[in-house]
């Protein structure tokens, strides 16, 4: 029996790249928007921010694929069907995330914000660069995105440690795991990078108490989800100097509200949630592989553990 794939991401105006990739990789299968499909034929849904009630239109739906790595918003829905859920974990996301993290870490490791401020004052201000192996970088989350970013930072000669739920082996990275290891991990991170999923366990993981465990003046880079850091506590820590600088790509409310104190803080760099992006070509390959596996009854890669939250 032939089937179809419904695609729902309103931020993507042209889905012909996806449709062509599916036609080539899964002959006889159509990928289209809901209006262009017979709902009975839809077995797979590729979604990002689908409206409430979206899934109920498709009586033969078998699998939901989230068009992104983070599934916190999807899992929070009260209309989520009881079906397997997969997410994107594609090469382009890994590369773009590592590039962003590398940029943000090296910007601090090379004191660039100090020179940005000196330039605005019109001042030739020399600060001797710190040896990379004396700079301690802590990466919270050593998954698909965090592990690659950690390895790339380690390749620059910085001291890198990573924190996860279970033990990991990442080249050049000291790996610790579990909540008991967190206080010492924070106390020994001059630059802290957050690449965790947002789950009940990680929401406000970095509250005022844990931000106070960082070395005074530590730099914080959040590329994961805003709610993993208690934002008012971060603002206070940035104002007091406990946190020296922050690079923030994600926020508790997005877009960041105009009245957020973060906008005016000169020790904060704000980017609009774009640290990591998927490319249609590499993501389509992964989606085709997932559907092939599902049809063949093989184990799925990148399946979400709904109870765990990622
Ligand atoms: P993965 O699921 O591959 O990895 C998650 C990592 O976090 C794993 O190492 C996991 O540990 C660890 N972790 C989860 N919960 C805990 C916990 N309670 N305690 C300790 N460690 C924990 O996710 P990705 O690397 O693919 O993505 C990470 C997040 O990045 C996404 O969930 C998303 O929110 C965000 N993101 C942001 C983007 C942006 O543009 N800003 C774009 C894409 C993603 P273990 O492996 O041991 O279970």
Question: What is the gist of this entry?
Answer:
With 310 residues, the chain is an alpha/beta fold. It has helices at residues 16-25, 72-75, 91-109, 112-121, 144-154, 182-187, 208-211, 231-240, 280-296; strands at 4-8, 30-32, 42-47, 63-66, 85-87, 136-140, 159-164, 173-177, 191-194, 218-222, 243-248, 268-270.
Question: What key attributes describe this structure?
Answer:
single chain, seven-stranded parallel sheet, alpha/beta, binds NADPH dihydro-nicotinamide-adenine-dinucleotide phosphate, five-stranded parallel sheet, 310 residues
List the helices and strands and how they pair.
Elements: E1 4-8, H1 16-25, E2 30-32, E3 42-47, E4 63-66, H2 72-75, E5 85-87, H3 91-109, H4 112-121, E6 136-140, H5 144-154, E7 159-164, E8 173-177, H6 182-187, E9 191-194, H7 208-211, E10 218-222, H8 231-240, E11 243-248, E12 268-270, H9 280-296
Parallel strand pairs: 1-2, 1-3, 3-4, 4-5, 6-7, 6-9, 7-8, 9-10, 10-11, 11-12
Helix pairs in contact: 1-9, 3-5
NADPH dihydro-nicotinamide-adenine-dinucleotide phosphate binds at residues 69-70, 89, 93, 141-146, 164-166, 195-199, 201-202, 223-225, 249-250, 273-276, 310.
GO molecular function, one term: oxidoreductase activity
Keywords: NAD, Oxidoreductase
Domain D-isomer specific 2-hydroxyacid dehydrogenase NAD-binding: 104-275
């Amino acid at each position: 029996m032939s089937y179809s794939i419904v695609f729902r991401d309103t931020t993507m105006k042209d889905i012909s790249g996806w449709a062509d990739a599916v036609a080539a990789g899964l002959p006889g299968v159509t990928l289209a928007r809901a209006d262009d499909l017979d709902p009975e034929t839809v077995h797979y849904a590729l979604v990002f921010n689908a409206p409430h009630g979206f899934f109920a239109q498709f009586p033969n739906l078998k699998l939901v694929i989230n068009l992104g790595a983070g599934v916190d918003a999807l899992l929070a829905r009260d209309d989520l069907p009881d079906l397997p859920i997969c997410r994107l974990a594609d090469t382009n996301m890994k590369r773009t995330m590592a590039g962003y993290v590398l940029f943000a870490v090296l910007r601090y490791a090379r004191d660039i914000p100090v020179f940005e401020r000196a330039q605005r004052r019109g001042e030739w201000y020399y600060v001797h660069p710190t040896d990379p192996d004396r700079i301690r970088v802590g990466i919270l989350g050593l998954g698909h995105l965090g592990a690659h970013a950690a390895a790339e930072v380690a390749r620059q000669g910085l001291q890198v440690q990573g924190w996860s739920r279970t033990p990991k082996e990442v080249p050049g990275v000291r790996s610790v795991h579990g909540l008991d290891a967190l206080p010492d991990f924070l106390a020994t991170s001059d630059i802290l990078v957050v690449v965790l999923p947002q789950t009940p366990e990680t929401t406000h993981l970095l509250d005022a108490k844990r931000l106070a465990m960082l070395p005074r003046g530590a730099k914080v880079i959040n590329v994961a989800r805003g709610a993993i850091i208690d934002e008012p506590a971060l603002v206070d820590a940035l104002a007091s100097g406990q946190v020296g600088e922050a690079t923030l790509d994600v926020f508790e409310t997005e877009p960041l509200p105009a009245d957020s104190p973060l906008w005016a803080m000169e020790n904060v760099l704000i980017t609009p949630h774009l640290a990591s992006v998927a490319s249609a070509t590499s993501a389509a390959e992964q989606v085709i592989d997932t559907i092939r596996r599902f049809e063949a009854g093989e184990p799925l890669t990148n399946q979400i553990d709904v109870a765990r939250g990622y």
